[in-house]
Automatic annotation (TrEMBL):
Cleavable signal peptide: none
Enzyme superclass (EC): oxidoreductase
Pfam families per record: ALO (PF04030), FAD_binding_4 (PF01565)
Stored InterPro entries: ALO_C (IPR007173), FAD-bd_PCMH (IPR016166), FAD-bd_PCMH-like_sf (IPR036318), FAD-bd_PCMH_sub1 (IPR016167), FAD-bd_PCMH_sub2 (IPR016169), FAD_lactone_oxidase-like (IPR010031), Oxid_FAD_bind_N (IPR006094)
GO molecular function (one): D-arabinono-1,4-lactone oxidase activity
The organism of origin for this protein: Lentinula edodes
Name listed for the protein in its UniProt record: D-arabinono-1,4-lactone oxidase
Record's GO cellular component terms: membrane; mitochondrion
PANTHER family: D-ARABINONO-1,4-LACTONE OXIDASE, L-GULONOLACTONE OXIDASE
Pathway: Cofactor biosynthesis; D-erythroascorbate biosynthesis; dehydro-D-arabinono-1,4-lactone from D-arabinose: step 2/2
Length: 418
């Protein structure tokens, strides 16, 4: 087991969110190589009276893994333990990243059922935060978990599932790491498959007028909204037996879509109108209809090309239209100041109801609205944050089911709208 001793004033974990900076200097960072090492760390923490916080790859834009006591990194707990191709189940260690899992599953002709827009995170991090992909008939990714082995604070290992220790199971699959350390995860998968993604552009009004039809028109529907042009890029993906046809163009996707857009965003720090031009260019580059066929995880994932700030809100599916219209009104108001415009398309996704206690999709179909800002634009870059939070929380609280979970943050932020 590797123990990293920290020197005073060396910052080892730093995350920016809404102009806040979360910094911590752990007393020690442990990198266990097996489950027995994890037990030793917890025993040491008990004897020393220290708190242990678990960190994966540090992807979450929050202070969730921050501590000034003991930090446990799951970097080496990344093995695939068993693969049952017939039952389409795998057992893996919680520290495996999704990129590593995709590669291992592909060797056995298997793939994950649904994915989010990136695969940098650890599987345990995905599970304990109820991360999601898109698909109105597909639950958050935690619903793919069949069972787990959790290491509790007293050092005991507990097997839990929906049938055995169900309370611990339902508390852990969206528990933010508060119930214990997830050692092993048994995951439902499916035979590897290709996805055919069809992309088309629609106006904002046309999209909202046909919202339900579009959401149900494919297995995995998501929208990319460009407020600068009032255009929606509609992505509809379905499983297919067609051969791979990745598509794309180096000139448009790499040179213009990456280098030129990023240059305009950088220049926008000094010349405000460049922000608007960046949005117009990005919208124009994807304005025509297109399609591609590729491995499932390549279509699910989106290439995040720029350093960025991001925030995402979950609202009941039935409230999508009023929320988006309110956001549109707000964006039109701030477009007079290009510095405060949203720099990237707003990603809108959907998920099915689930029974996970702290899941935003608990007992309800859910819409997820993600807003991203270019990270280099510090001045005014999160002027969008608080108003957008208020709008989202208003749409959530006004029609919220009584048995749904509401964070204290939403309660506080939405006070002006109640």
């Amino acid at each position: 087991m590797r123990v990293i001793k920290m020197q005073k004033n060396i910052f080892v974990y730093k995350v920016d969110r809404k102009n806040e900076t979360f910094i911590c200097t752990p007393l020690a960072i442990f990198e266990p190589r097996n489950e027995y090492h994890c037990e030793l760390i917890l025993e040491l923490a008990r004897r020393e009276g220290k708190v242990v916080r678990v960190a994966g790859v540090g992807h979450s834009p929050s202070d969730l893994a921050c501590t000034n006591e003991f930090m446990l990194r799951t970097t080496h707990l990344n093995r695939v333990l068993t693969v049952d191709k017939q039952k389409r189940r795998v057992v893996v260690q919680g520290g495996i990243t999704l990129h590593q899992l995709h590669a291992s599953l592909a060797q056995h002709g298997l793939a994950m059922i649904n994915l989010g827009s990136i695969s940098d995170q650890t599987l345990a991090g995905i599970v304990t935060t109820a991360s999601h992909g898109t698909g109105i008939d597909y639950g958050v990714m935690s619903t793919q978990v069949i069972s787990m082995i959790v290491l509790l604070a007293d050092g005991s290992r507990v097997y839990c599932s929906r049938n055995e220790q169900p309370d611990l199971f339902l508390a852990t699959v969206c528990g933010l790491g508060s119930t214990g350390l997830i050692l092993n995860i048994e995951l439902a998968v499916e035979s590897s498959f290709h996805l055919k993604e069809v992309l088309e552009s629609r106006s904002f009004e046309d999209t909202l007028s046909n919202l339900k039809q579009l959401v149900h028109s494919s297995e995995h529907t998501r929208f990319f909204w460009f407020p600068a042009t009032d255009m929606m890029r509609v992505s509809m993906s379905n499983r297919t037996h067609e051969t791979k046809r990745p598509g794309g163009s180096w000139f448009y996707d790499s040179f213009m879509g990456y280098h030129l857009v990023q240059l305009l965003l950088f220049l926008g720090i000094f010349f405000r109108t460049c922000n608007t031009w960046a949005g117009l260019l990005a919208s124009w580059l994807v304005s025509s209809a297109s399609s591609r066929v590729d491995d499932s995880y390549r279509v699910f994932n989106v290439e995040c090309r720029y350093l960025q700030h991001t925030t995402e809100w979950a609202i009941p599916y039935e409230n999508v239209e009023p929320c988006l219209r309110r956001l549109r009104k707000y964006f039109h108001e701030i477009l007079v100041d290009p510095r405060e415009r949203p720099h990237f398309p707003i990603e809108i996704r959907f998920s099915a109801p689930d029974d996970i206690w702290l899941s935003p999709s608990y007992n309800q179909q859910t819409c997820w609205i993600g807003i991203v800002q270019y990270k280099k634009l510090f001045e005014g870059s999160f002027e969008l944050y608080i108003p957008t939070s208020k709008i989202s929380c208003k749409c959530y609280r006004k029609w919220i089911r009584r048995d749904c979970f509401v964070t204290s943050t939403c309660n506080a932020i939405s006070s002006d709208y109640l």
